[in-house]
């Protein structure tokens, strides 16, 4: 396994980064209970607090705790980099839809579309590709955790 680099978030404790990385990996493997277990080990993520809220929101959505997921995802928007907010709004819209809040779901979907379009424009001008995931985890398979 390749060593994790801490260049992007040097002030974040390696243990915090490891728990967030593990949580993201467990979510990719569709193991939300394991992700939740990792996230409970991180009471304060410092400069990665937005990512912690995003991972909690995704975990809670997967566990079908939609109102709590909405709260966590809205909190993530306060911290999270602009480039991820299209994903956040899309996920928030899906949670609103699951709770029967059709108008809020539609508004969130529209916001996701607007932000996605803005990201495409920014990517064109900066000659880069918009990010679609956090990229914290070293790709794992279910066999790695069983």
Write a structural description.
This protein is mainly α. The protein has 7 helices and no strands. The chain has a single domain, classed as Tetratricopeptide repeat domain (Serine Threonine Protein Phosphatase 5, Tetratricopeptide repeat). The chain has helices at residues 14-28, 32-39, 49-62, 66-79, 85-98, 102-126, 142-145.
What characteristics describe this protein?
single chain; 146 residues; mainly alpha; Serine Threonine Protein Phosphatase 5, Tetratricopeptide repeat; disordered N terminus
Task: Report the top-level CATH class.
Answer: Mainly Alpha
Order of helices and strands: HHHHHHH
Kindly state the number of beta strands: 0
Helix content: 55-70%
Taken from the alpha-carbon principal axes, the silhouette is globular
Helix vs. strand class: mainly alpha
Low-confidence stretches: 1-7
Oligomer: single chain
> Residue-averaged pLDDT, rounded?
81
Domain count: 1
Q: What is the CATH topology?
A: Serine Threonine Protein Phosphatase 5, Tetratricopeptide repeat
Quick one: CATH superfamily? Tetratricopeptide repeat domain
The description of the largest β-sheet is: none
Sheet-strand content, in percent, reads: under 5%
